[in-house]
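Still learning. Show one?

>
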Amino acid sequence: MDRMASSMKQVPNPLPKVLSRRGVGAGMEAAERESFERTQVLKDSLRYKNELSDMSRMWGHLSEGYGQLCSTYLTLLRTKMEYHTKNPRFPGNLQMSDRQLDEAGESDVNNFFQLTVEMFDYLECELNLFQTVFNSLDMSRSVSVTTAGQCRLAPLIQVILDCSHLYDYTVKLLFKLHSCLPADTLQGHRDRFMEQFTKLKDLFYRSSNLQYFKRLIQIPQLPENPPNFLRASALSEHISPVVVIPAEASSPDSEPVSEKDDLMDMDASQQNSFDSKFDDIFGSSSSSDPFNFNSQNGVNKDEKDHLIDQLYKEISGLKAQLENMKTESQRAVLQLKGRVSELEAELAEQQHLRQQAADESEFLRAELDELKKKREDTEKAQRSLTEIERKAQANEQRYSRLKEKYSELVQNHADLLRKNAEVTKQVSVARQAQVDLEREKKELEDSFQRISDQAQRKTQEQTEVLESLKQELATSKQELQIVQGSLETSAQSEAKWTAQIAELEKERGSLVNAVARQEEQLSALQEQLEYTQLKLSSTQESICQLAKDQRKILLAESRRAAEQVVQEALRQFEEPTLFSCAGSADHLLCKVRSVSSCIEQLEQCWSQYLACPEDISGLLHAVTLLAHLTSDTIVHGSTTCLRAPPEPADSLTEACKQYGRETLIYLGFLEEEGILEKADSTAVRSCLTRITAIGEELLPRGLDIKQEELGDLVDKELAATSAAIETATARIEEMLSKSRAGDTGVKLEVNERILGSCTSLMQAIQVLIVASKELQREIVESGRGTASPKEFYAKNSRWTEGLISASKAVGWGATVMVDAADLVVQGRGKFEELMVCSREIAASTAQLVAASKVKADKDSPNLAQLQQASRGVNQATAAVVASTVSGKLQIEDTDSMDFSSMTLTQIKRQEMDSQVRVLELENELQKERQKLGELRKKHYELAGVAEGWEEEASPPTLQEAVTEKE
């Protein structure tokens, strides 16, 4: 804590503060004084930059309390200092107009790029403080009405103001950058903006719901969706967030002051009343020196002095008591106010808790109703379950009784059988043996299929046997009576029956052995059948596995062959034989479209293969076709790069290589069936989209225009050029009339001379355009034969495009020259711009003449008339340049310097400044010349690609190069 205290004492004085209000009518002196104060504030603050960094690190070691808050706030102060040091044009409150924002970037895209990065860093620090404050608050309670919560929320008002300005400037700068740079270069800026937009929108929404901010500041709400920087028109939809601070009401801080004034008034009134009582006792103060007791005797003087001292002591005591009373009253007022604030906070918290309790009671009441319904359902289910169990027990008891009765019947039946066994042994055995013999013979004649049927009917047969046994039991009883009657008569034939029974027993034994042999054969046949079925199933499984392995091998070989084809195409990027080849962008785009349709076909085949793995022919065909189309696309992309400018060529080369790598990854999903469902062609499609975009940029201009529309386009461009010349002439006449009405002297003379030469130039151009129309009409009539003019223009499309380009250049040059002349007349333009525009018009007319002379007859009178008109344009251009130069010199002569009032030191100072200015201008001239050379070089390259200048001597095609290589 001692270290913290010493660190906090290191800053002896608070940071200087700049007053933003200026008096009305202060003028330039007030503005300069404010600028100086702002600069001085920044300089004075930078002295404490290192101390603020040390304090930030020190507070950062405290993870609890206000440590992290102080550390983050000090980091924000340091970032703000660095930002204003790098960008001195920005005021402390960050309020700037659009024009000032453009001046801050000095109209340089690099400066705007760096300025956007610095704004992102600044806004990131603001958001960090915002988030740190909210993380330290307990949002489940009404923290904004407590003293601790307001202490933490108070710095966020300035943060909200800065964030609104930074967000507005960031959006405008990003739109400006997107109009100058490609979208891929600014991908990082867009990602960082999206992240900060989400955070800022959430923090603004959370802040607007706090009671503390509602009476102090009106927080704006950001739009639902972020701006679309890829669409330039979206800038018009952007609305700058405005933070509104209402008029400040009487703050609570002013109340103690008023109370103090009241106490002071009370003190004064008491003092006055005491003085009046003192005057009543000792006499009025109007008398001369009432305390002069020198004339009185000594005894009276001592008593009065004693009384006076006593009264003075009483007065001092009363004053001390009064001061104590004032102090106690102030302390009591403050305590009561704090208590009131605490009670209000507790009241708000109790209201919040009461609302929560009400919500919880509603929720519990709903849960109680639901539980009652569930309990009723449970009781119904329990009753139904009890009923079911009761029925189940009744059924079980009934089953047990039936089972007992059945077992009793079985036991009775067994007893009856044992009782009648001896009686019916001879007859029943013989008869049963004969029945069994017949049945067994009949069963042996049946097939194995009937054996299974007999097993199913076994229960029914047992029932029938039971019925037959009952019948036999009845008949046996009858026969028993007969046998008992004939028992005496059968004794004689007992021997005979005994012999027959022996024979039947012997025959029955042989039949039992035969049945046993048949059963053994049946079991052997069943085992053989099971073995055969098992072997058949194993054979079928092996065949299916073999077919599956063959399909895997076939698919793997196809994938390997496809990868080799693609890798071979990637290796051909460095193939020397392709250096003499050249491809076209339109052919490359055709290949890309074929690849896209092939990818769709491959995805359909994959879906079919996953649904039915036996059908693999379609997938193999699609993989092979994709490999060959990919190889053709990569090779045609490499050959197209040979004709493209350097930057698009590098982009196309990288895109083709990336496409080949993504295709290899895409084909790698065919390696295993487990990852086949995860195959995704998004990366391959994005590469194709990128190649398509680059290919469309490489298409020659005018290629998207239909050939049959070229004739109409030529007429339209010539008519538009004529209209532009007429409009320019009318504007020059209007400017000349305004100059005559408002200017005098040298300025009027210069303006009349310049505008008169411009009018002459426009008239000469108008004559040139008419002559060009006549010559083109003659060329078309003499060269088209039986074809129509549109067919002639379509047949000679390159010549037609040259005419269109020249016409556009002439019309554009005339419009620009009139704008430059208007600025020169108004005194806001440069004479050099007017001279450059006139020379540009002369060059454009020369291009139009050259385009018209390509197919014209050299002895044509219209050609001679066109050449005469061209010479007239050149003379008019020279007149414009001459009048501009002379007017410039004439105006410069009127603005010559006056050296009469200058001293030698001042002249020497002016001479040094002039030398510095000359060196600066020479350096700028050299840089501008280099820039002009680069611009002309780039213009010639783009114009050559767009107009197809190289098609006359294009290198051999890709197919011819491949044929030569083979």
Remarks:
- The chain has four domains: 2-247, 255-275+305-427, 545-698, 707-896.
- The longest helix spans residues 298-445.
- The domain at 545-698 is CATH 1.20.1420.10 (A middle domain of Talin 1).
- The CA atoms of residues 480 and 943 lie 133 Å apart.
